[in-house]
Every structure is written in C-alpha cells, then in structure tokens.
C-alpha cells in the first residue's frame, strides 16, 4: 500500500570489524582507536587530534575487552539468535502501486477513506518484511518439532498485552512432552514519528524474545486480512512442519494447557495432517451495509449478500494441514477486508468446513445469573479461549486457574468436545 506504507531507510553495508591479513589484533585496534579510520562520524580534524594525543593504555585495554566481549556474543548461538531475530529483510520487488481500476468504480468518491484505500491496494499481497524470526520452528536434531504455534495478531503499540501474554498463556515451553512456540504479527502505524519509536520498540522485543514478525504495511482493521496472508506465506516458507496453530488476537485469554490436552486427545484421528478448523462458528450472515458499523462492507467491495460459514477471528484453532491449505487457496483469492470471512472463503474454495467448539468463546462468558461473578476462575478453568481480556485480567486469571487449591462445583471438561 504505497499511500500508507512507511518507507524505511536501507541499512548501509559496513566493513567487517577484523584486522587485515598479516596484522595482529592489538596493532589493528590501536590504529582504529588512535587514528579513527573506522569512525566515520568523526571529522578529519578530530581524527588528527586523536592521532597527535595518542591513546591512554587503560582506554585501549578497556576498549579491547569490550570489543572482545561483543565479538564473543556474536559468535555464540545466543548472539546468532539475536542478530537473526531482529533481521531487517529487504524488499524483493518494487513498492506496491495504486490500482488504476478504482476510477471505474461507481460511487468511489463517496466511500469512507479506509475503504477507498482498501480498494486502491487490495491487489497488493507482497510487502517488505522488517522483522523476522526465521529459526522459530527449528529444533535440535532428534528433538520434536513445534506441536502448537501461537500466531497472535497484535498492533505496534500493544506492548503491555504482548508482555503479559509472554508471561502467561503464551509462554514458550514444553507441556505434556510437546513444544509450544509463539509469534506476534504486526504492521506499522501511520504517523512517521510514532512509527519510528514503535519500530525501535518492536526491534528491542525481537532481540530479547525472537517472537516478532513485522511487515511494512499500515496496521489497521481492514488490513488484518493482509496480515493473515503474509503470515501464512511466512509459515509455508519457515514453519511448514507445525502440527497445530492457534491464530487469535492479543486481547484473548487462552488456556493453553487445555488446548494441548484437546489436541493430544485427537492423536490417531488427527496428528495435524488432517483437517481441523474450530472456533465460534458464524453462519447464515452477510455483509453489513450500515456505514456506521466497524464491519461496513459496501457493494463496491462485494455484491454478494451472504458470507460462507466461518469462525470468529478472535481465536481459531487449526491443524497444520488446514493452515497450508488456506495458504494455497489464498493465492487465487483477492483480499477481502474482513479477515475471518476471508479465511472462510479459502476453506470454502478448498471444500472444507469450519466447525464450532464450545470451549472457544469469542463473545465472552455468559453466567446464568446477574448475581454471579463472571470473572470466577471456575468458568475459565475448563475453557480453551475467551475474548476479551485487558492485560491485568490475563495475569490474574492465569494465576487463578493454576491455583492448586482451586475447587469448583462441577468439572465440565468442555475442551474435550466439539
């Protein structure tokens, strides 16, 4: 989306920090420090002054120790992970261009701005990737691959939500002998100044956690479908062996333990190689034509009066087989502004159907009486996913459902049923 995409400065190639052949480390470091040949920010006069004054021995020693430590870090596996996690990936092609066909759309000028933008750039499915995690699904030889990949749609500014998820239901761990891994999917904000700050924040998160995928497109509600398509493309290239995926928003509460237990219960019938796509099923609905609605889709976007069955986008659990199928079908389906409907379109084209799971509640938990507390952990202990939670509620509920002395009147085990 050329009109909304924020341009990023290209990284300059730097000469390697190592001495040339035939020169020792000590001699090379002294030259760099005293003459400043590797310090492009210094003026010629400053370099001459450094050369005349010389370098104090203690400064030279301390600097050598610091550089040595940095080199050691970069040579270790952790250092390699840090560099790869925050890798900026260059664009593989020219920037997306505006579609000229919008001039032929009747009533285009009267449409809201975000819908005009969608129509201008809906043909664009390739954007530069800014942050990557290419080794997310790599496992040591002989170790099991990723059993459950948590793909969480987030916005750049939602730092608190991401941090709470990392500490609670999104923690990367091994549970019941299977590996759980986590990724956050983000774009960019429109304002250039805010984008610069938030991109630095995301880069810091990527360095520390190695769990951020970011692309250079405007992160907005109508671009959630684009975010999904870019993620499924990444999945096909970097994590095709993931057995199952949870694809959801960053304001949902997930009982990851129950999800793993549910999926392990499918062993034999479905080990990730068969169709699975469950959530809160929505059927027999169509586009909302009221302009005030967040979900407003005018006839200029689609003339159809009905949507295929789909699961609400707050949280969907699927197999690796189904995720790969969605990717393949998405290659031949143009973008649609409502992301969960778009995934339903991909399933329909593949001849697959979404299913309802009573443990996934994307409209919250309804209690039988207004006198009862809906935030009671007994309502959440046996569920898979609930939308929506603010960050502190996630932390409180995660601790509450794991209290060993928690006693509830009836054990529902709804995670076992579809």
TrEMBL record:
UniProt entry tagged with the keyword Ion transport: no
Q: Report the GO terms under cellular component.
A: Golgi membrane
What Enzyme Commission number(s) does the record list for this chain? 2.4.1.-
Q: Which GO terms describe its molecular function?
A: N-acetyl-beta-D-glucosaminide beta-(1,3)-galactosyltransferase activity
Primary localization class, coarse: Golgi
Gene Ontology BP annotations: poly-N-acetyllactosamine biosynthetic process; protein O-linked glycosylation via N-acetyl-galactosamine
Pfam families, from UniProt?
Galactosyl_T
Coiled-coil annotation: which residues?
A: none
Compartments (UniProt record): Golgi apparatus membrane
Give the membrane topology, semicolon-separated if more than one. Answer: Single-pass type II membrane protein
Instruction: Note whether Transmembrane helix occurs among the keywords.
Output: yes
Q: Which chain regions cross the lipid bilayer?
A: 57-75
This protein's source sits in the domain of life called: Eukaryota
Which pathway features in its UniProt record?
Protein modification
Record family assignment: Belongs to the glycosyltransferase 31 family.
| PANTHER family assigned | BETA-1,3-N-ACETYLGLUCOSAMINYLTRANSFERASE, N-ACETYLLACTOSAMINIDE BETA-1,3-N-ACETYLGLUCOSAMINYLTRANSFERASE 3
Protein name listed in UniProt:
Hexosyltransferase
Q: What is the lineage of its organism?
A: Eukaryota, Metazoa, Chordata, Craniata, Vertebrata
